[in-house]
Amino acid sequence: MQELVKRIQQDGNVLGDGVLKVDSIINHQVDPLLMKQMGELFAKVFAKRNITKVVTIESSGIAPAIFCALELGVPMIFARKSKSLTMNEELLTSSVYSFTKQVTSTISISRKFLTESDNVLIIDDFLANGQAAKGLIELCQQAGASVEGIGILIEKSFQDGRQLLEDMGIDVVSLARISSLENGEVTFIEADA
Amino acid sequence: MQELVKRIQQDGNVLGDGVLKVDSIINHQVDPLLMKQMGELFAKVFAKRNITKVVTIESSGIAPAIFCALELGVPMIFARKSKSLTMNEELLTSSVYSFTKQVTSTISISRKFLTESDNVLIIDDFLANGQAAKGLIELCQQAGASVEGIGILIEKSFQDGRQLLEDMGIDVVSLARISSLENGEVTFIEADA
User: Where, in this chain's numbering, is 5-phospho-alpha-D-ribose 1-diphosphate bound (chains A, B) (predicted)?
Assistant: First the structure.
């Protein structure tokens, strides 16, 4: 997506440890028009997959996911990273290991919101090593739901997340694909949409 | 907002301990059309306040806040409940005490995103004792920004949060106001919009 690539070039910052910081447009301050455009693009790309639920994980996936769900006319579900006081029903749970934080956390969705008749589109802001996406896929699989695809805003193509998901047979659509963050420079390869 | 009241009556559940559960429409599974309607209503109510930023707190405030920000044509900022790896700049921070969890947590916004020239509209899903809203107001005040109002989806009018905010001189606009959750019944009083 040309607009996202342009905005990363304009507003993104590469931190010393190979981290891309996009906190002025995506994951702290958020550009609502950009989110709307990205959410609607995912809806268009997956229009023929009969999506019944859009699933993401709190917090940075929520904005693009809600616009995608609106466009598709289906509910959005955000997986919880910690158990809420009111989550008193049976839960789908999965363990997600964070390489950056070096901790394993449990993510969950209430079982009542995903069934075997659901066709799920997963949306997330970043794809790096694919652990969060894998966790979301496992929640869907526990419910017997079909994962129809994954929409990613920014893919770090120099990490192995995409390969991991494709090896699981999942269609990955990334709006910006970054092949390198070396020397503080963002290098892009052709995106999927 | 009649539509929200109707949906709470239809989809809400009162838990034994006086907690209203709306996880099928607001804070776990999310209805995107309802969120759009609520966000746009806040934008309409605060249209003349020259809002420059919409501020919320992760995670359940993000969906209504992003639609409000889109309608107003301004950025949305979500305060973080935990420090992100990439938050390496100066932060505005505030302590928020949770009566339900009985813990104090620190919320933060990067200082660069709020200045004294900002007019802020705060959006959140619930208002009960007002501690989260008070924390967000403190972040704005540290930046010298003006808090032009607070938009709340569901106010528990039997708790003292609204009074706390009004005593600070803040305009509170709640789309549903609940006067009682006793005996498992949701009783409403007239909402602000």
Answer: 128-132
